[in-house]
Amino acid sequence: MDGVKLHGVWASPFSTRVIWALKLKGIPFDYVEEDLSNKSASLLRYNPVHKKIPVLVHGGRPVCESMVIVEYLEEAWPQFPLLPSDPHERAVARFWVKFIEDKSLNVWIAGRSAGEEQEKPMRDSSEMLAILEEHGPNKGKKFFGGDSINIVDIAFGGVAYWMRVIEEVSGGKMFDAAKLPRLNAWMANFESSPVIAKNLPDRGKLRDYFVPVRAKILSSSTSK
Amino acid sequence: GEGRGREADRGWPSPFVMRPRIALNLKGVEYEFLEEKLGVKSDLLLRSNPVHKKIPVLLHAGRPVCESLIIVQYIDDAWPSSGPSILPSDPYDCATARFWAAYLDEKWFPAMSGIARAQGEEAKKAALDQVVEGLSLLEDAFGKISKGKPFFGGDTVGFLDIALGCFLGWLRVTEKMNGMKLLDEAKVPGLAKWAERFCAHDAVKGVMPETEKLAEFAKLIMAKFKAAAPPPQ
Q1: Any residues with CB less than 8 A from the CB of A134 and at least 6 apart, and which?
Q2: SS3 for A8?
Q3: Residue A65 touches chain B, beta carbons under 8 Å
Q4: What residues of chain B have any CB closer than 8 angstroms to a CB in chain A?
């Protein structure tokens, strides 16, 4: 009864982060694709507080919230460590995960808004990128984790890849490659690295998925 | 030197500043408490937390650690053989504690601090309802997590106790200012008794602000907020 099951949505950056952690650690798992317009009884039972994916079920017990799940995987499966062993470096990594989680809300808001309402979340997203560019850990190395991918890379990977889809779908610009050489290089490194490359949802398919989602949100907010 | 921390603290009223202090007390770690002047950020603070420029910041052996719950985890990692373990040792229990801590910081506390800022009775009631619902969820969680023991952490104060307990002062002020009981023994008996135990704990009593003092501070902040707000249309 020690099997691992992930309830997710293929287009979600949050469930994709968990897939990356599972694959990097070589943890076998079953995957359940959820329909967000028709959430399964199990999902609602496993995550009664937020009713959201991803949910990781291990030995029948649910773990919710993508980065909480990643920390759980790190503790339960020590191979391919995603956190440094030094206490201070761990604190730095966690600091950046929290920074990314808190500030990336602006990216999702930008995806759901238009015109004037979109201006501030776009600016705030750009500011987040500027700070990561300048202060992010392990500057000069391939990844935020140094020579190998760690929890910060996983957290940011979920944001960076989807940000470009959101830019395409919503017509805004958040990522200015000319101003962000470090992050630009990081993206190429991250997205081409073996495990990640095989587990990135197709950009075209993501765009096709989010166009109607965005349209629906915008039309329901204007018809108030 | 070894085993000493330093903390930059502007706010005795701040629940976030309280968290690392409780953790340091649990571990029996001596620390120096640097009070930041209200409205003026010291050079040390700006250097130590250039991204957010906020307190609390823990300085240990000259290196800064920021974000209250990250500091608590750091304290647990850095002083592993002093005092009790703050994070649960079981990964699943750890994930549960982290889940609820995230809920508190992202949903519950913003709702509570939103009560005072709510414009109009309807908005106020909505915020209060969220807080009450949250307490009911937390009561349920307490029952499941403590398994009959005195704290979320079991026999000792742990991560989730610290994460929630730091808000008790503000919860009492909210009760006072709205003339209602939130930590109602009839509705949330487990939490009500837990709160008493938490506040009486040696690691907590010295750093938990008095409700009266906090209420005075809250009135000051509210006055400033109202003065700065645009006049009603």
Answers
A1: none
A2: strand
A3: yes
A4: 50-51, 60, 63, 65-67, 70-71, 73-74, 77-78, 91-92, 94-95, 98-99, 102-103, 137
**Residue range B190-210: mean pLDDT, rounded:** 96
Taking only the tens place, the pLDDT of each residue in A157-201 is 999 999 999 999 998 899 999 999 999 999 999 999 999 999 999
CA distance A117 to A99: 23
The pLDDT score that the predictor gives to residue B190 is 98
Residues of B in contact with A98 (CB under 8 A): 67, 70
Global pTM? 0.93
Is A76 in contact with A58 (CB distance < 8 Å)? yes
User: How far is Cα B76 from Cα B80, in angstroms, rounded to an integer?
Assistant: 6
A101-114 burial, b if ≥16 CB within 10 A, otherwise e? bebbebbbbbbbbe
Q: What is the ipTM of this complex?
A: 0.94
SS3 content of chain A, % helix, strand, coil (to 5): 60, 10, 35
- pLDDT score for A216: 93
Residue pair B205/B164 in contact (Cβ under 8 Å)? The answer is no
**Is the pLDDT at B97 greater than 70, yes or no?**
yes
